[in-house]
Amino acid sequence: MLIDDILPDFHFQETHSILIDAPAARVMAEALAYKPEDDAFFRGAIALREAPIRGWARLRGRTHDRPAFTLDNFTPLARNSQEAVFGMVGRFWQAGYGQDPLADLQAFETYDQAGSVKLVLHYHIGGEGKACLTTRTRIYCLDETARVNFARYWMVIRPVSGLIRRRVLKTIKRRTLGT
């Protein structure tokens, strides 16, 4: 799998799957077209996550004009007919997400900022007859400081992240089947 080539070693991982009675190509097209920001729960979770940033800006008499977090925060890293891998790097536990710019796969592979993590989001379609769509998130911590900081953050966000992933899969299934 592409994810194993891009991030074979990891410290944290979350995986969710769903069976969809449709051709794999159609399922992948729907997965790639999906925008989580269309989901009210996702928007609410992000608004809650960003509330301290916006509140702090207001207290300082400023506006927080940064766009809300979306799938556009991820950089496409690799893709084939059965898989798509997106990545991001930084210190995501920081109030402003601590995301560092990432141009492409090469930048992802060579990224080595101390105290940071590498994260990949992976869509994979397998199975025969019915397509099995799997979403997998992997996080690799570049050092012990990053591992400690991310572990604390992961404990808080993982339940919400899992719920969002399951909602994503159900929505992709519904859209694929036209129901």
UniProtKB/TrEMBL annotation:
Top-level taxon in the UniProt lineage: Bacteria
Protein name: DUF2867 domain-containing protein
